[in-house]
Design goal:
nine-stranded mixed sheet; 10% helix; 9 strands
Length: 177
């Protein structure tokens, strides 16, 4: 019994650092060096996936993916961002992809938020499930503007525009307050 307990304690103490938050992490395809959540700086080369990032993220030549993100992300050389759960902060990248909710600013060629977006989307193509804020781009789309403005060549709101609920597309500007 004592040997089993000692073995469990020893295994736990060795495995514990893998679950601790890391101040610095390098993500490459299939590996995080060191593993765990990030509270500080994370660089992702080609593709990297980690559970949670709080701080500064630098996607380089590919996609940086996390479940939770809070902070600033700046993509370099076609760097892109994906957050599968909630995102708070500013993301600059070729593409900014949020599966769930996002709050802050997404600035890139393509910005996508599957659920509610609160803040600024600035890009060539912007999409938000529901919008509280501003979309500024050539093509802006949402299922519903709660409170916000779309400014662009084509503005699509599935629930209608300020002109009519039966007119889902309006050029130049669309808003609801």
């Amino acid at each position: 019994m004592k040997k089993a307990l000692l073995g469990t304690i020893l295994a736990s103490s060795i495995a514990f650092p893998a679950f601790a938050a890391q101040p610095v992490q390098l993500s490459v395809p299939g590996n995080n060096l060191p593993a765990g959540d990030v509270h500080g700086f994370r660089a992702s080369l080609f593709y990297g996936q980690t559970p949670s990032v709080t701080g500064f993220q630098l996607p380089i030549l590919g996609l940086a993916e996390s479940s939770q993100f809070k902070g600033l992300s700046v993509g370099v050389l076609f760097g892109a961002n994906r957050v599968t759960n909630d995102s708070v902060g500013a993301k600059f990248g070729l593409a900014n992809w949020n599966d769930n909710r996002a709050t802050g600013a997404d600035i890139g060629f393509l910005n996508y938020t599957g659920n509610q977006f609160t803040g600024l989307q600035f890009g060539t193509v912007n999409y938000a499930g529901s919008l509280n804020g501003v979309q500024f781009g050539f093509i802006n789309a949402t299922d519903h503007i709660n409170k916000g403005v779309q400014i662009g060549l084509i503005n699509y709101d599935k629930s209608g525009t300020f002109v009519s609920k039966n007119l889902p597309v309006f050029p130049i500007i669309n808003a609801r307050f």
